[in-house]
Amino acid sequence: MLFSFLTLLHLFALLAVSLRIFSRRPTRGTALAWLLLIILVPAVGVLMYLLIGERRLGRTWMERAIAMEPQVRRWAAEIPATTVVDPGVLTTGAESVSRLATGSVGLPLMGGHHLQLLPDSGSSMRALIADIDAARSSVHLEFYIWSDGGFVDDLVAALVHAAQRGVPCCALMDSLGSRPFFKSEAFGQLRDAGVEIVEILPVNPMRALLVRLDLRDHRKIAVIDRRIAYTGSMNIADPRFFKQDAGVGEWVDAMVRIEGPAAWILEAVSLSLTTLQTGEDFAPPPPPDLAAAGVALVQIFPSGPQSAIRHIEQLLLAAIYAARREIVLTTPYFVPGETLLTALRSAAIRGVRVILIVPEKIDSRLVRYASNAYVDDLLAVGITILRFQAGLLHTKSMVVDEELTVFGTVNLDLRSFELNFEVSMICYDPAFSAATRAMQRQYEASSQALQLDRWRARPNSRRLLENAVQLLSPLL
Predict the structure, then answer these.
(1) pTM surpassing 0.90?
(2) Are the beta carbons of 391 and 359 closer than 8 angstroms?
(3) Residue 117 belongs to what H/E stretch?
(4) How far is CA 302 from CA 115, 273, 423, in A?
(5) pLDDT recorded at residue 474
(6) From the centroid of its chain, how far is CA 125?
(7) Residues of the chain below pLDDT 50
(8) pLDDT of the residue at 215
(9) Is 183 a catalytic residue?
(10) Closest Cα to residue 350, out of 310, 315, 317, 322?
(11) DSSP letter string, 348-408
(12) Is 394 an active-site residue?
């Protein structure tokens, strides 16, 4: 009798969740992964689906997102024509990427930028602190992780001093990523100095069935005086102290310092998230009148879970299919969907040199297993896979033909494509692409290449485990 009841309960749960999955039309891989999990471990599978099966930002956030969209479109349409560049000046492949970017998020190609690649956390933080010390009108920061100690204490001191001399300062902090920081002395110093702090996506376990708790603000943005901006992979954390007990070494990051109109675009992107969190109107200040700082052409590309379309994945696919000679990618987490995997394999088959640089050690064993499941497919078509040996390579970059660079916060995994608020800079500048490619070559020098014959000689038990985890990769 008990067995029959449990069987009926299992069938009911499977049918109910299956109908829910079919009604929402997720990707085939995601749907199959959930169905497999529910069939194999019904109770756990159903509970996990209720907690993380759908991108639930919550009714309030979605209502605000719907209300804000026309405001953002109107604001973007009023971007001064003097800063906008016709994508027709680009090469054919780059032009298609630029037009896709504009069509997806409404932000145009813009000129007049000076770009400086900062290849490590130390140089990035020193430059950021110097700009904050020189700030006269505003400082706006948005970072996923804030972790006190080391040079972060110097940054906090710079923010305190800026606020004390009358410069408005605002800091957005992800509620989960920065959770320990909220209890730190440094946090209190910022609050006492008058720095405005916005906690993004507060974590409330009591609402876990209504709001998905692992939808996070993964962006890294700093804007000073609306004319200088930073973005890239670095969190507000000193790698000499951050997660030293994880056994992966120091995190290796890079940032770009931007002078030009993309700075106030990035500020507006960050203000849009403030609007979603606080419910205030989306009303960025008017664009400042800036003289051209350089000749680099740049587009800013925000993405997030409020959209059902994977805009950033579409952009990366367009860039990969536009490649003629070489694609070099760096990412800490490589768990691609089928479309991205097919694009990379297709590029290699048509003769494009494809290099993927990932860290030897990462802070997630399941992600490592899932990532390993793709290695054979990539090596078999001639893609070079390099494992970085000198720490956790956290830089997210893609250089195509040393002409186009995508640089920012996006990992090559479904979490970045679907679940996180992210931001990328698309740069159509050979000089910056050459600088980024030179940095990637430094990563190559500290890496070891995987060999297909040695890879295929690994134990069958390990291969089976990796393939099993890969089946569930849409859920990671």
Answers:
(1) yes
(2) yes
(3) strand 110-118
(4) 19, 11, 4
(5) 59
(6) 20
(7) none
(8) 85
(9) no
(10) 322
(11) HHTT-EEEEEEESS-S-HHHHHHHHTTHHHHHHTT-EEEEE-SSEE--EEEEETTTEEEEE
(12) yes
* DSSP structure class, residue 87: G
Task: Report residue 31 as tokens.
Answer: 């749907």
Contacts of 332 (CB under 8 A, 6+ apart): 358, 359, 362, 392, 393, 394, 396, 411
**Is 225 annotated as catalytic?**
yes
| Catalytic position from the list 113, 140, 311, 396 | 396
Q: Which of 148, 238, 253, 401 is catalytic?
A: 401
Report whether 56 contacts 212 (CB < 8 A): yes
Question: Choosing from 220, 238, 413, 429, which is the catalytic residue?
Answer: 220
- One of 225, 238, 413, 429 is an active-site residue; which one? 225
Cα-based torsion angle of the residue sequence 208, 211, 212, 213 in order, rounded to the nearest 10 degrees: -60
pLDDT digits (tens, 9 = 90+) for 29-49: 677 777 777 777 777 777 777
- Annotate 395-418 with b (16+ C-beta within 10 A) or e (fewer): bbbbbbbbbbbbbbbbbbbbbbbb
Q: Where are any strands of DSSP class E within 201-237?
A: 220-224, 228-232
Is residue 10 annotated as part of the catalytic site, yes or no?
Answer: no
Catalytic residue selected from 113, 140, 311, 394: 394
Catalytic one among 218, 253, 311, 429? 218
Q: Tokens 């991205």 belong to which residue?
A: 340
245 noted as active-site residue:
no
CA dist 161 and 351 (Å) reads 54
The helix (run of H) or strand (run of E) holding residue 413 is strand 412-413
> Parallel, antiparallel, or unpaired for β 255-259 and 110-118?
antiparallel
Question: Which ranges in 78-175 belong to alpha helices (H)?
Answer: 92-105, 121-133, 151-164
pLDDT tens digits, 365-397:
888 999 999 999 999 999 999 999 999 999 999
Active-site residue 361, yes or no?
Answer: no
